[in-house]
Amino acid sequence: MKTLKLITLTAALLMTVSAFAQNQNLVGHITDENGEPMPFVNVVLLSLPDSTFVQGTVTDEQGSFLLPTDKKDGLLKVSCVGYQTQYAKPTNGLTIQMTVDAQLLGEVVVKSQLPQTRMTGNSMITTIQGSVLEDSGTAQEMLTKVPGMTGSEDGIEVLGKGAPIIYINGRLMRDDSELRRLRSDDIRDVEVINNPGAQYDATVRAVVRIRTKKQQGDGLSLDLNLTDEQVFFLSLCLSVLP
Question: How many angstroms separate the Cα of 201 from the Cα of each of 159, 167, 205?
Fold first, then answer.
């Protein structure tokens, strides 16, 4: 009887240890070419062989990341504006050294033009104005390059949180087409909140706040993609105005 109890106890202990090991977080460190820690770098775990998104996170101010996942196979994708995207096998304690994208950081673009990100409480604020992200095209294209964010078939997502609710100059965005009409060079900064407080609904997992250089309705340019007929009609309407 004692032997049976011992076997049962041992089996339960092994199962507990195994479950704990499977649920351990994946941790690592990202540095630049000089070995200095790189904060606010996107780290994404992709499944193989289809490279679908599994989980993602962003490095902290010490260049470290913690990826909450029980999946230990696949491929890590590490990306940051101004640096070449790196891929690595997901292993705990991994250190990845980033390499400057020489094509981007050439004579025209210097490091001072890379987007600057800072932590403010529970959010990350990335300055778009004056950075290379100004030239992304649309706000939708730009958001996929912002630290802590990515793009998927379903739209814009915050890493580890899914689809966020989006505000433009404090106004809740209700139509995704606004991101395709808003130009990236009209945007001042983007705030990513991955731990929304009590002021938001309990179902909200992430919030993105876009602030433009000018308030909408105050000369903000939109990429309307008008047809020739629409341009003619608009010109005709303007011509009859007093």
Answer: 19, 14, 9
Span 48-57, average pLDDT: 87
3 Cβ contact list (under 8 Å, min separation 6): none
179-197 pLDDT tens trace: 999 999 999 999 999 889 8
Q: Which two tokens stand for residue 140?
A: 């939708």
Residue 142 domain flag: yes
pTM, two decimals, is: 0.74
Helix (H, G, I), strand (E, B) or coil at 65: strand
DSSP letter at 74? S
**What pLDDT score does 19 carry?**
38
Residues 130 and 195 in one domain: yes
Specify the CATH number for the domain of residue 205. Answer: 2.170.130.10
Say which residue the tokens 């793009």 belong to: 151
